[in-house]
Design a protein that fits this description.
The complex is a heterodimer of chains A (about 160) and B (about 375). Chain A is mostly helical and about 160 residues long. Chain A contains 6 helices and no strands. Chain A folds into 2 domains: about 80 residues, Up-down Bundle (Four Helix Bundle (Hemerythrin (Met), subunit A)); about 40 residues. The longest helix of chain A has 25 residues. Chain A is extended. Chain B is built from 15 helices and no strands. Chain B has one domain. With about 375 residues, chain B is mainly α. Classes of the chains: A mainly alpha (about 160), B mainly alpha (about 375). Chains A and B meet through helix 2, helix 3 and helix 5 of A and helix 1, helix 4, helix 5 and helix 6 of B.
């Protein structure tokens, strides 16, 4: 019962902050509304029993993507009055309509598999998958190498000399 | 999914039989712990810094000045609450909460003794990192919302410093997880038959320095650098909102010292008894060490702080992770009599080598 209430409350916060993010004039307010949106998504994950995913959601989307958006807004010139040269209203409406129709169609027609029983310890599952699946370690190492390359590239780009 | 399933899924170890009673008692204890130590830390900081600077510090209100902070809180509460005219009112109101609440939330996974912990999350360490990211956004929000350029600069500095120092912090915690083989904070404490600081001094150095920067204590307090940006992000705040932002700084100090004591100094393990008393002694010692650093070192400049992170701390953290992984792979059963001296020698060598590569202020001298 408590979880149901939490789920619907979080869903309401999610929708309100998402609508606020796209309707507000101030860019920074939109940023913060988006961050609240991410937070409530992670709350939804917790109510569904995916706390590993929820924590990663906060770390990646709030700690990294949210900060990145704030940084990029602060780096651009002053644009608090909203988007000044927007001539793409009609294409945008059409594209989002198409997306909405596709999404609703996909959700309605998919046959969602329902499993019985409760979720086991998710962090154990994650580590078990990484340690036992052949090739998973290789993927980890490749991802680590890509991140290292990105760090080195960023430092090289930022050097002044 | 009903509530009982939630209890087993998030790994709560009910100290009291009913989970909700356990949660309520735990929350009350944690919040009381948090506020009590914030007040005591403020008093300790003022007295100890006074000691270092050859003066007395607060000594009039109550015995030894102990309830000076209470008097300060009462004074601050009765101040006029000023909201700047051109500020973003909604964010201005929201920011102190956004900065304050996550700091307190971290205590939910800190084990006060073997059986008393609010929730024993199996992703505890990741939870700590995730929640502290929210707090940094709250600090930036308070800097932005006041519509003051000093506040904005302070907030941006805080955010930039936070995301830079988070990388070495996470890397040092990764080596910890590698050794203890668990993400749960209580599991990490249980794994420490010897404190981690003896097994991995280098990880401790990296973690401690990075967390000093994350909570922007001296020498990394460029966020509130009085001489440049007149106290930074909280400049437009007054009354209770200011008090909340002020409490954020000390709350972060409380949480950081608890985490250092838990992750590296053995947590609730003690010489004679286990439980909250050794933990509290250790966290106060860690805080005194932080104060010692504050009284000793000057503040870094912005570019020096960033350079220190990217050119010194990050490579050191990577080397530490590499060697820890190598040790766990090739010599998993090495005797502690070899590991401890070897890791101290290794730490000294690595710090000496990498310190030669990074010299703050050298470039400025060349430019002059």
């Amino acid at each position: 019962m408590g979880l149901q209430i939490a789920f619907w409350a979080l869903a309401a916060i999610l929708l309100c902050s998402a609508i606020f993010a796209i309707s507000t004039k101030s860019v920074m307010r939109a940023c913060f509304a988006l961050i609240i949106c991410f937070l409530s998504v992670s709350g939804l994950f917790i109510t569904l029993g995916f706390e590993f995913l929820a924590v990663i959601q906060v770390m990646v989307y709030v700690g990294a993507v949210g900060v990145l958006i704030i940084m990029s807004v602060m780096m651009t010139k002053r644009n608090e009055e909203g988007n000044v040269s927007n001539k793409f209203k009609l294409p945008a409406i059409l594209a989002s309509l198409c997306l909405a129709v596709l999404g609703v169609f996909a959700v309605i027609t998919t046959n969602w598999p329902v499993t019985e029983g409760t979720a086991s310890n998710p962090i154990d599952n994650v580590s078990a998958v990484f340690m036992t699946t052949p090739g998973a370690i290789l993927l980890m190492i490749i991802a680590a190498l890509i991140i290292l390359t990105a760090i080195v590239a960023a430092i090289t780009t930022a050097r002044e000399e | 999914m009903d509530d009982a399933v939630l209890v087993t899924t998030i790994g709560a170890t009910p100290w009291y039989e009913n989970f909700w009673v356990h949660l309520a008692i735990g929350a009350v204890v944690a919040i009381a712990f948090f506020f009590f130590f914030i007040v005591m830390y403020i008093w300790t900081e003022r007295r100890v810094i006074g000691l270092f600077q050859g003066r007395l510090g607060p000594n009039r209100v109550g015995p030894l000045g102990l309830i000076q902070s209470v008097a300060d809180v009462i004074k601050v509460m009765f101040k006029e609450d000023i909201v700047p005219d051109k500020s973003d009112k909604l964010l201005f109101w929201l920011a102190p909460f956004m900065a304050f609440v996550p700091v307190m939330m971290i205590l939910a996974v800190v084990p006060f003794s073997e059986n008393f912990q609010i929730v024993n999350l199996n992703v505890g360490i990741l939870y700590v990192l995730a929640v502290s990211a929210i707090s940094s956004i709250g600090v930036f929000m308070s800097g932005y919302a006041g519509n003051n350029k000093y506040g904005l600069i302070g907030g941006m500095r805080g955010l930039a410093q936070f995301i830079s120092y988070e990388i070495p912090l996470i890397l040092s915690l990764a080596s910890l997880v590698l050794i203890s083989n668990t993400f749960s904070v209580n599991g990490l404490v249980q794994a420490q038959t010897l404190p981690n600081i003896l097994m991995m001094p280098l990880a401790f150095v990296v973690y401690f320095v990075a967390s000093l920067a994350e909570i922007s204590r001296t020498p990394f307090d460029i966020v509130e650098c009085d001489s440049e940006i007149v106290a930074g992000f909280n400049i437009e705040y007054s009354s209770m909102k200011f008090a909340m932002l002020y409490l954020v700084e000390y709350g972060e100090a409380v949480v950081t010292s608890v985490l250092v004591a838990t992750l590296f100094l053995g947590g609730w393990h003690g010489f004679f008894i286990d439980g909250p008393i050794p933990l509290i002694i250790k966290m106060v010692l860690v805080f005194l060490f932080i104060l010692w650093i504050r009284a000793t070192l000057p503040r870094l400049r912005v570019d020096q702080s960033m350079g220190f992170c990217w050119k010194f701390l990050l490579p050191v953290a990577l080397v530490n992770l590499l060697f820890t992984a190598a040790r766990m792979t090739f010599f998993p059963d090495l005797s502690n009599w070899i590991v401890i001296p070897a890791s101290f020698v290794f730490t000294a060598i690595v710090i000496y080598l990498f310190a030669g590569l990074f010299k703050p202020g050298r470039k400025v001298a060349e430019n002059d």
